[in-house]
Amino acid sequence: MNKVIVAIGSNYDSRPRIEAAKKSLQRLIHNAGFTPEKETAPIGVSLPCANYTNLLAYGYTDISMDSLREHLKDIEKACGDKREERRKGKVAMDLDILLYGSSRHHDADWQRDYIKEMIHSIHHFLQDVNNIKQQ
Fold first, then answer.
1. Where is average pLDDT lowest: 31-40, 44-53, 60-69, 81-90?
2. What is the DSSP letter of 46?
C-alpha cells in the first residue's frame, strides 16, 4: 500500500461536485480522510473567476500511480470538468496527486500557504514530511 495525498479544488458549483469527488475517492483510497475545506483566491489566472474551495484527500492505495492518475481524470470528467469551461475560468473539479508513496508531485502546490496549512493538519498521517522526495 502506498500513502497518497490528492489535492481537490473547484470554483464552480463546488459543493455537490466536491461531495461527488469525495465519494469516488473513497473507493480508490483506503481509510480515506479529508482535511477541512479552505476557500482561496485564484492563483496565476488572467481571467476573473470565482474563489476556489480546496481540500486534501489522504489515505492508502494499492493501485499504480498511472492508474490513480487515470481514475482522477475520470472523476474530474464525471464532476463536469471541461477544458473549454476552464478557459473561461470555471473549474468544476481539479484533482492532483501531491504524494504517492514517498514521492512528492506538483512541488509548486506544496509551497502554497493553504496547502502547507492543510498538510500541517494531517501531520499524524505524514509523520516525517522531510523524508518525502521531490519529483
1. 44-53
2. S
Distance separating alpha carbons of residues 34 and 73, to the nearest angstrom: 19
CATH number at residue 90: 3.30.70.560
Q: Report phi then psi at 42, rounded to 5.
A: -60, 145
State the cell numbers at 89. Answer: 475560468
**Domain encompassing residue 19:** 2-134
- If one counts the domains in the chain, the total is 1
3-state secondary structure of 85: helix
Q: Residue 9: what are its φ and ψ, rounded to 5°?
A: -145, 145
Taking a C-beta distance cutoff of 8 angstroms, is the pair 86, 77 a contact? no
Half-sphere exposure of 130 (CA within 13 A, CB side): 0
Report the predicted TM-score, pTM, of the whole model to 2 decimal places. Answer: 0.89
